[in-house]
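Box 3.1 — From sequence to structure: chorismate mutase
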Amino acid sequence: MNDIPLSPENCTTMAEVRAGVDALDRELVALLATRFGYMRAAARIKSNRDAVRDEDRKASVIAAAVAAAEAQGIPGNVVGDIWERLVEGSIAYEFTEWDRIRD
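Predicted structure (token representation):
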């Protein structure tokens, strides 16, 4: 069996759809691992714990994700909700890392 999933347009069975979703989920988790690596770097670089939470940056990141989603023709509100959780989780992780590095 081919390990490369079919494109959504070429799927004709639910098994093919699920294989594509599962493959994409593995890729998304790998990308998230890289993103959290950047959060570790930010925790290492920021000398002040108060700098971890930056509401202006958070708003900018979420707005950019919503705009990119809408440009791709997918629901911006859904992506905005996902990015809200992603950014808040990233901030929490960065706080944990900031404290861990300095203990």
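Summary of the box: Residues 8-102 form a domain with the Chorismate Mutase Domain, subunit A fold (CATH 1.20.59.10).
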